[in-house]
Design a protein that fits this description.
CATH superfamily of the largest domain: Mog1/PsbP, alpha/beta/alpha sandwich
Number of strands: 19
Strand content: 35-45%
Number of domains: 2
CATH topology of the largest domain: Protein Transport Mog1p, Chain A
Strand order of the largest sheet: 3-4-5-9-8-7-6
Shape: globular
Length: 344
């Protein structure tokens, strides 16, 4: 089920409110464009100067049209400010990670909603995904475009542009200019002192946990971590991800899956081992429920740990990734976060 519950909500809300129509504030205008350049991987892109921007050097650059947009995009709410976002992420092309696998992972909604085509980005061939559907009201269209390409064999760049409530057409001319301006990420030089300086400017994860809730669970995460949309497994129902400003490769992610047809947790874990380097699962508990945990290595300088547990008709998966060079700062508080996990 790919975002099935959200699509059902769209249909129901449309039936209830279509006769009323939708009125509200106008989208935030684009006054002028500026250029952001990542000083770690070199990617650059034009962006609306008057929109709200944030960045993780070497990993991500996001621009939202309005201060409320981040919350709306985190849940793809049918109602809210007619927001838009421009999101640039850098992915490591490690073993098993290809442009095609990134295309598959980028499809958060039902695969049938996407038109996928070859395209040219920064002088190289890449992929373009285009999608749109009514959200909340039949005539209120949600639009999106995703561009994925790689300038070298080490780094891929993923550019997502999305807009609620028919506002995509309002921005089309600017979006075209922004897309034409894209310069893709490349692996940084071996000696890059500025990378170390930038990484150390942001604090490590806080030891103080802030409780966050999701569908059927509550978990404590470092209070200097923010909710970010970093994608989910193609067959997951929902995903919640939390990371800090210090590192884009160190995060906490919770995903839920439909387990109504398969109640054998051990079998589910065995079927998923291939995605985690065929690591050996160990029995444990999670939130008071029987669980399995396994360790894997998603990248040369990154470690990972994954928990699987069942509750009702859902399977819950918690994934931790952390930079090995700062394990002493990340792993203890990440383990504390998992220990705080409870089912609701």
């Amino acid at each position: 089920m790919k975002f099935t519950k959200l699509l059902m909500l769209m249909a129901i809300t449309s039936i209830l409110f279509i006769s009323c129509g939708k009125s509200g504030p106008d989208p935030v205008a684009i006054e002028s464009l500026d250029t952001y350049t990542d000083n770690v991987t070199g990617f650059s892109i034009k962006f609306p100067k008057n929109w709200i921007k944030s960045s993780v050097p070497g990993g991500r650059f996001v621009v939202f049209s309005h201060e409320s947009a981040k919350k709306r995009f985190s849940k793809y709410d049918p109602e809210g400010f007619p927001s838009a976002k421009i999101d640039v992420m850098v992915a490591d092309l490690t073993t098993g990670v290809t442009i095609d696998s990134l295309v598959a992972k980028a499809k958060m909604f039902d695969a049938s909603m996407y038109e996928v085509a070859d395209t040219q980005i920064d002088g190289v061939q890449g992929k373009k995904l285009v999608y749109s559907f009514p959200l909340g009201f039949e005539d209120n269209i949600f639009n999106g475009m995703i561009f994925i390409a790689a300038k070298d064999t080490a780094k891929a760049t993923i550019i997502t542009i999305e807009a609620f409530d028919n506002s995509f057409e309002t921005y089309k001319a600017s979006f075209d200019e922004i897309i034409a301006s894209i310069k893709l990420a490349k692996a940084p030089e071996v000696k890059a002192p500025e990378v170390i300086t930038i990484t150390e400017e942001a604090p490590p994860p806080s030891q103080t946990l802030d409780m966050r809730t999701g569908d059927g669970f509550i978990i404590g995460v470092p209070d200097n971590f923010k909710a970010e949309n970093i994608g989910k497994a193609s067959n997951a129902l929902r995903a919640w991800s939390f990371l800090g400003a210090r590192r884009g490769d160190s995060f906490i992610k919770i995903e839920t899956f439909d387990a109504s047809k398969q109640k054998d947790l051990k079998k589910i874990v065995d079927e998923n081992r291939a995605s985690f380097q065929n690591a050996s699962p160990r029995q444990t508990t999670l939130g008071g429920q029987s669980a399995y945990v396994l360790d894997y290595k998603p990248a040369a300088s990154v470690k990972g740990r994954v928990w699987f547990a069942m509750k009702g008709d859902k399977m819950f998966r918690i994934t931790l990734n952390w930079f090995t060079g700062e394990e002493k700062d990340f792993l203890p508080v990440f383990e504390k976060s998992v220990a705080s996990f409870k089912f609701q």
